[in-house]
Records
---
Amino acid sequence: MSFSNRTNLHPSTFILIGIPGLENAHIWISIPFCLVYMVALLGNFALLFTIKTDTSLHEPMYLFLCMLAVTDLVVCTIAIPKLLSLFWFKDREIRFEACLTQVFLIHSCSTMESGFFLAMAFDRYVAICKPLRHSAILTHTVIGSLGLAIVFRGAVLISPHPFLLRWLPYCKTNIISHTYCEFMALIKLACAETRIRRAYSLIVAFLTGGLDFILIICSYILILHAVFQLPSKEARLKTLGTCGSHVCVILVSYIPAFFSFLTHRFGHHVPPHVHIFVANIYLLVPPMVNPIIYGVRTKRIRERILKVFSPLKA
């Protein structure tokens, strides 16, 4: 049965084809994808358990890290099981409602992740530039309020996306050249004017990821200004070391995110399989790497994890 010439304006299902041009390699690609997903699950659950059970880690940076871990788990879990089902069992169909749900959860959680990166940058700014007021400024109430505000922002700004997609007619095809449902991938299937919808998506991306990134850079400019005023080289290196993990996770997350965003909208000459592969790296790699970076680079988390998960000595 051919799905490429469907005339139904509102199909009940879409067809995911995976990574175009690499269909024969789907089984082999699925192996590292599955391993990375399992490591991401294990790492984030271990991180959450470690921070929850150690009250000495109930500090702003680690509480924001817990929020980031939860969103990482949601992002990869909403997409990867279906991706593996597609690669292993040729399960290409996804219901229209499930597709819209995927769009909402992936984009809203990605927006929340960006917000948590900004909150963590603010924590580093207060800890370094206003150390005596750190505990007074970032109380548990303030941390909870910031977390709720970030979740609320992500949910509200992305909530129009499913409705904008649902009202579109899809008379071209119901085949999605991707491994999961993504806003721009669905927009390209519509046979109606989509400039307003594209513009809204672009504005939301700037108001969230773009603005967050600018504010993170500003916070680090202020941090560097404060650090270089310290009297000794040792003090400067020690202070900068407290920001190392945060900078690493930002780079791991933002580089593929910006590449995916820009190529979807402006990279018309980028091969589809390259764009889709990077989009999957964005969903998979940060959730795996984030707990590893913090587990390796943060002494208190590393010691706690080793204490909890190492075999009991006689």
---
Amino acid sequence: MGYDVERFVGYVNEGLLCSVCRCVCEDAVMSPCEHVFCRACISAWLSQHATCPEDRTHLTHTQLRPLYRYMRNDLMRLQIRCVFHVHGCDVISSLESLHTHEAECDYSLLTCSNTGCEVQVCRRDLEAHLSVCEFGSRLCLGTDKDTHTCVTELRTELQLLRAECVCKVEELRCEMESRLDSQRRHMVQRENLLKNEVEELKGQLSCVMSDVCVLLAAERSRRQELEKAELEKAELLELLKEGQRQLTPTHQTTPTPGEGPRKTGPRSLTLDCIKRKSKEVTVI
């Protein structure tokens, strides 16, 4: 699990987010396809899969490699709040020096050193806790033996410890809710992006279908025109054959000198018209 994005101050490049947990990478490694992961996240993923979680290309542990130098420098320069800021620490340091600070932070949680005590308190409050810890070896300081009872004092201390535990549980709950909200926002953004891409694809598909319908309509119209032209051609050929049969003479007479050319009759004009029409249809 990486560093929660909400802990960082300023802009965080999305290329430095783990592709598995969507947090800023901790102990970052990179795949051959240049996707970035936390080492722990990708190790857990590869224990059950053999592919990159981002683009599903083949991936094994041996193919993982360190980040490019410029990416590692950008990662180390990020400004992050101390992990103990929920306890009151206001320090903001670079990611490179974060572990050094947290190891010495006055608000870091330490476990009581008394045997049997599992209470965790801030480093700066450890001495105060040790002075009242019920598991510590101490002498009863009660002076009035008639009114003082150690049981009552211990019950009071126990109530204080319970109150501290309740506060810590509430702080942890708030931190987990903050992380969940961050994850929800990221998922909503991805969902909206996918919806927009689907709508664009639907629009493109609609345009393609419209173009196909126009082409099919033009093809049907062209076929109808061709069929109509073929019918007209067949009818004209029948008329031509019929006219030829009617106008063919049994013998051909030669005009005598002085008579001049014979006049063209209406039938011959009809025949010429039919022939011209037939030629036009043939050209079509």
---
Amino acid sequence: MSEAKAVLSIAASLAASAMLIGSIANDFLPTEVQDYWYSSLHFVSQYLSSRITIVIKEFLGLIINQVFEATHLYLGDRTTTSSAKRLRVGKSEKEKTFRTTLDRNEEMVDVFEDVTLKWKLICTQVPLSVEYINPDLEDHNASLRSEVRHYELSFHKKHTDTVLNLYLPHVLKKAKAVKEDCNTVKLYTVLRNCWDANNVVLKHAMTFKDLALDSELKKMIIKDLDIFRNGKEYYRRVGRVWKRGYLLFGPPGTGKSNLIAFMANHLKFDIYHLDLTDIQFSSDLQFLLLTMPSRSR
């Protein structure tokens, strides 16, 4: 009850302040200035009320948000020609070009079919805790990371259908092309029970042509990989998860790691290295498996 009274008191104070400013304006400002002032306030009010903002979080519960990843690639490819004032630039030894992304809390404007869209990368620092995952959090990964990220996309609400049905699919398509153009395979490791975002570009440039393996066995493996890579729609149609497993065993030095690298280079899939000796609880293993993207080894 006291909170309701406090809210009413604040509202009454704001109303009184507005009336006081209006009274001062009527007493001291010329009519032309008053008209301009009120019309400007009305325009700003109408502009703000007609805007809509879409929030794109990095994770959906425990799963990586595909739209966030695509947005990151798409905007990074457009930052050099954008209105952004702060950019992050990086390059690995194997990459031929620089990678650019928006810096924390930076904004940029994009135009699609004469529609102006405003992007902003929001980064929030959070206390790092690996001991407990808050079940009430929509983003469960927040408990395992020191920073929570999301993009905000704002535009005039009359363009909502265009953004949802045309623009966002356009972002996904362009991001896929950017990723394929990079043509690099990355290696991810575990840090504090989650995948380390600071990946390493795999320098293993050899292909199956360089692999010392029985030619018939090599052909069989390549054929099986190609069938799997091109069979995503088939897996979906028959109701199966698009996954393929290979069990490699043998003493150290017999080429198991090399074969994995050859497969990753052939498929252009990133490698996620998981050492089971570092896993203490089954929930940690489940978390890592769920947050691993489908196009990985």
---
Amino acid sequence: MAAPSCGAPGVWIRGTGPRSGSLFTLVSKAFCSTAAATSPLNAQRLAERLRAQQREQETKKPEPTNPIQRRVQELVRFTGQLQRVHPNVLAKALSRGILHQDKDLVVISKPYGLPVHGGPGVQLCISDVLPILAKILNGHKAEPLHLCHRLDKETTGVMVLAWEKDVAHQVQEMFRTRQVTKKYWAVTVRVPMPSAGVVDIPILEKEVQGQKQHHKMTLSPSYRMDSGKMVKVRTNRSAHVAVTQYKVLSSTLSSALVELQPVTGVKHQLRVHLSFGLDCPVLGDHKYSDWNRLAPQKLPVGILKKLGLKQSKARHIPLHLHARQLMLPALGSRKEELHLVCRLPRFFAHSLHRLGLEMPNQDQNGDFEAGHLRAQ
């Protein structure tokens, strides 16, 4: 059989169906005809053309007419922008969101959905792009930046990096000895009662029995009620001391914006204290909203209506936990405390607006006063 007249290589697939026999089918016909009319493409031009075609196809996708589908698409767009990109693209995005930079430290705004460290199934993480980020900020001869602490994959907000390993160790020691003040903002399902207080309940990790066995952090109280009296119980050796201060900043009948200040740093401490200690799980916490199951968070009808979603689409709601503020003691040549504040991610701000929660405005003295949020 004569090959088609084409100046560029084709992709052939052997057919074995009843009508094709042993014939071959040309797959890249459109590409072939284009290439024949022009000069041969090099790899770079071909890649650029394919990317342009992909962008054109994406722009041609019709906008969903269903409001729930539009809302889901909006959540996916807000939360998935940096999860499947090239490391260079991620490093560039992080460099545009620098909160603070000096000769010792670099402070970034951690995006949603990106783990800090690698592991099974992790395609991209913060630590992978630290060498690239260092070169963007300080030239091609710059040494890689170093992590000073970590945030959960789903948590957004302030993250501190150091230029030198010994500086990173100093900051890590500050975190370990509780010299660093951290404040988080969370949107909760239901309103904590009382509106301000301290949760002082140890936490340990347990295996959850069920259809799918898994491990979760849970409470290990030091006291229990016995015939109306509070009785001290033996402390579990595996339990960790966990203390969280909290304060409701704004609330409605079914949700609240809560400021959290962890005194200790136990794994998933804030989420466990809110869900199991105060019965007010973080919005979008699909792990700790139910002890027995790993399933999308069950939400009240009122919250779903305000968010423009159905329960079947609740799995698309991201974790609304944001590392809002961080205060570092004096370090090296810097003689004063470093006060860092990170803006809310877009999905968080939009949820506040939809739920009717007011975001505090910070005045010049650093105090907060309630003010209406405008969606970005």
